[in-house]
Design brief:
The protein is 44% helix and 12% strand. The chain is α/β, with parallel strands linked by helices. The protein folds into two domains: 30 residues; 206 residues, Glycoside hydrolase/deacetylase (TIM Barrel, Alpha-Beta Barrel), CATH 3.20.20.370. Strand 4, helix 6 and strand 5 form a beta-alpha-beta unit. The longest helix has 28 residues. The radius of gyration is 20 Å and the shape is globular.
Length: 243
Amino acid sequence: MGANMLLTAMLVIAAAGLAFGLWFWWACSEPSSTFFRPVLTRGPQEGKRICLTFDDGPTEQFTGQVLDILREYQVPATFFVCGKNVEKHPDLLRRMVAEGHEVGNHTYSHLFVYFRSRRRIAEEIDRTQAIIENVIGFRPNIFRPPYGARWFGLVPTLLERGMHLILWSATGYDWKEDVRGITQAALRELKPGAVVLLHDGRETRPAAEIDRSRTVLALPGIIAGARQLGYTFAPLQDFLPSA
């Protein structure tokens, strides 16, 4: 009887530990989680405005193509850039700003923030802020963590710098879907105030390892489809809470 009770207790503890682990992973990884607050995943739901965002650039091969399409369709967007990639392609960052798009911080090296110290996280953010300021003359007030991951120390670091934590509420899953799949996924998840996640790069990898051609090909269909559904495109700054 004692052995059975001990086994039962161990199983209960193990199950509780597993449940807590799964919940904690969800809290740190799921965009809709508000465990680490404040965070913006979706803008105001009045009207049918949405925001396009692109992560991991700039890249020589694909950022320019994305900018060409946005200019053709007269759509504003927000680019969350990696400092290391900005060092390689500062002219593309200048072009983003010159053409009316917003820029956000995406860390220097595309850092996965899990289990990172507050100091390490701050170093990645500050280094990128300085690089961006050196290129375009100002520091952005928006930040998106790579993979959407959040960890202790991230939010206080952002608050100290007057920066907003931005995630997303819709995505084209362009890291795994084909062109049609990207288009359908992005449109399927649209709701008023949606912040849409796409990519114009891939972490800070060499050019030979980056292929965002499917995103480029899907983008016109996403824009046209959203407009057919009655949505208009807004700058992300319009979605930020008032000071």
